[in-house]
Amino acid sequence: MQLIYEKSAPGRRAITFGPLDVPDASLPNDLCRGKAAELPELAEIDVIRHFTNLSRRNFGIDSHFYPLGSCTMKYNPKMAEAVAALPGFAHLHPHLSSAEAYWPLCQGAFELVYETEKWLAEIAGMKQTCLQPIAGAHGELAGALLIAAYHRDRGESNKDTILIPDSAHGTNPASAAIAGFRVVEVPSHEDGTMRLDSVKAAMTENVAGLMMTCPNTHGLFEPVVAEIADYLHQHDALLYYDGANLNAIIGKARPGDLGFDVMHYNLHKTFATPHGMGGPGSGPVGVGERLEKYLPGPRVVKRGESFALEMPEKSIGRLSQFFGNFGMAVRAYAYMRHLGKDGLREVAEDAVLNANYIWARLKGTYTPAFDLPFMHECIFTAAPEAKKGVRALDIAKALLDYGFHAPTVYFPLTVKESIMIEPTETESRETLDAFCDAMLDIAKRIESDPDSLHDAPTTTPVGRLDEVHAARQLNCAC
């Protein structure tokens, strides 16, 4: 495919301007270019065709099945996009909330923030939520700062340690460290879950809290999470819920009821916001009663029939401008209103059903990483295939030739040659069957012609890339 610069023809224009109807203004020579900017010159139709064809050469959720484990790359209904684009939301100037005199002009937006926070709190069994964090990791940081504020307020300056399971998302220890905590890793049991004995072994008087994902990144529900919560509370430590996998339990179980004190939600994963390629994200933070007074502010509160802003009693302060990524909240609100209580419960049921359908179809050919029933994602180890010369990366890349985005590989780090598949709740049985058929065909090729997989993908516009080189020498301009 030609670059847009190679398609350029001198003098061709997409837009032409009429003659000036105001006096021409001259610029000082030292502010003028010595020669014209070297920009492509094309007609409008050439530009449209170039970028349309360029978009077709990529994999996306609107064009392909995208089973990226632990990332919940699900289809998001366009209904939510339409609601977020309504002029009353999209054209509202964010600084209207900056002065109290303008608050009457943004009562609708205030009400949406208020209602969205209230609904998120109800879904997760939390006392309050705050929409300010603008990404999942930002929500983690908010949660870690809230834990720090809680212990600081109680004069517990020795509480400087956060426990984190070895299966956790990498952002968990990073967020805790940025908040000033020392991080101690807790090993998983060989069945893929965390045991109370492991938490007890790591417990000291310095432990401020523990960050858990449930279901964890092994795709497994933590069966003793309530016992872990009780034990932590007995030692004046708090339990944090990483909400990245909330779609597996939404409507079925509430983190607050399981004993979690603080959590973040991923509106860009669970609640109908496009995910990936840099955002925008939204990671609201939710808290139980212990942490309510430390929430970020200002917060929208209801005064009679109208809405206003207030700062919580001992707030950790503002974490982002305005109310986070407000457009993401609009989409999430529309999604929750559209599905309702029964629909949200069905999200979890279908997410778990789809993952276990794939597990059931593939477990006789590929080796499941764990024996326990999976939740919303299933994990296989390609260690047996690696002994035959085909690694997890080869299998993932081969799927691109069958028309499927590669699943997550080599995560979690606790599984050797990990292949992590998350189909999400939005995919049909026909799509799941087509994906499984491709995986089974690849398995046959591993036995008959393993070398054919080493150069995959071979049918995509770009073949096998040197990912290490790309990561270390990022150049988006080439």
Could you give the order of strands across the largest sheet?
A: 1-7-6-5-4-2-3
The quaternary organization reads as: single chain
* Weakly predicted, low-confidence segments: none
Q: How large is the radius of gyration? A: 25 Å
Please give the number of β-strands. Answer: 13
Please report the number of helical segments.
15
What average pLDDT do the residues reach? 94
Net shape: globular
How much strand?
A: 5-15%
Largest sheet: 7 strands, mixed
H-E order: HHHHEHEHEHEHEHEHEEEHEEHHEEHH
Give a written overview of the molecule.
With 478 residues, this protein is of the alpha/beta class. The chain is 35% helix and 12% strand. The chain has helices at 44-55, 78-84, 87-90, 107-124, 136-153, 171-178, 196-202, 225-234, 255-258, 267-270, 326-362, 383-386, 392-401, 429-448, 467-472; strands at residues 128-130, 161-165, 182-186, 207-213, 238-243, 262-265, 285-287, 299-303, 306-310, 367-368, 378-381, 408-409, 418-421. Helix 4 packs parallel to helix 11 (326-362), helix 5 packs across helix 6 (171-178) and helix 11 (326-362) packs across helix 14 (429-448). The protein is globular, with a radius of gyration of 25 Å. The model has no long low-confidence stretch (mean pLDDT 94).
